């Protein structure tokens, strides 16, 4: 839920359900150094993400991106699992670097999720599938807005890419 509005004197009513259903997400913003192009990759899961899903996601990134791929990520335990370590050992063009601890301001992906959550705020889906459909549609829409993706990278406190 986020702030909403209503005409003066009329309390807004927002329909919602208190359920424990959830969607876990893994995503990446890519920046092409040659073309200065930004792209968004995202996968959604109806369960917790483990090192298995992280390894599968990284494998998909390698399929879509050519050349060396440098992944900046936080120190989450799912990034250190066995499947991830095996993938890193097999693919010499995949390099990983950790963000400093407690530094979300450096991570442009945090801006992606703030934006997507804002777009979906107060939507009130009837079930988890409706939420997943809306989230997927918003992520697809965002993929087609490279100027906003560039703004997320530029808006982070990473050293200048552009």
Mind explaining what this structure looks like?
The chain has 162 residues and is α+β, with helices and mostly antiparallel strands. It has one domain: Nucleotidyltransferase, domain 5. The chain is built from five helices and four strands, in the order ββαβαβααα. The protein has a two-stranded antiparallel sheet. The chain has a two-stranded parallel ribbon with strand order 3-4. The protein is globular, with a radius of gyration of 18 Å. The two termini are 35 Å apart. The model has no long low-confidence stretch (mean pLDDT 88).
Summarize the structure.
With 162 residues, this protein is of the alpha+beta class. The protein contains 5 helices and 4 strands; from the N terminus they run ββαβαβααα.
Mean pLDDT: 88
The description of the largest β-sheet is: 2 strands, antiparallel
Secondary-structure element string: EEHEHEHHH
In one word, what is the shape?
globular
Helical residue percent?
25-40%
Roughly what fraction of the amino acids lie in strands? 15-25%
CATH superfamily: Ribonuclease H-like superfamily/Ribonuclease H
Low-confidence stretches: none
> How many strand segments?
4
From the 3D structure, determine the CATH topology.
Nucleotidyltransferase, domain 5
Radius of gyration: 18 Å
In DSSP terms (H or I, runs of 4 or more residues), the helix count works out at: 5
Main structural class: alpha+beta
How many domains would you count in the coordinates? 1
What gap, in angstroms, lies between the N and C termini?
Answer: 35 Å
Main-sheet strand order equals 1-2
CATH class descriptor name? Alpha Beta
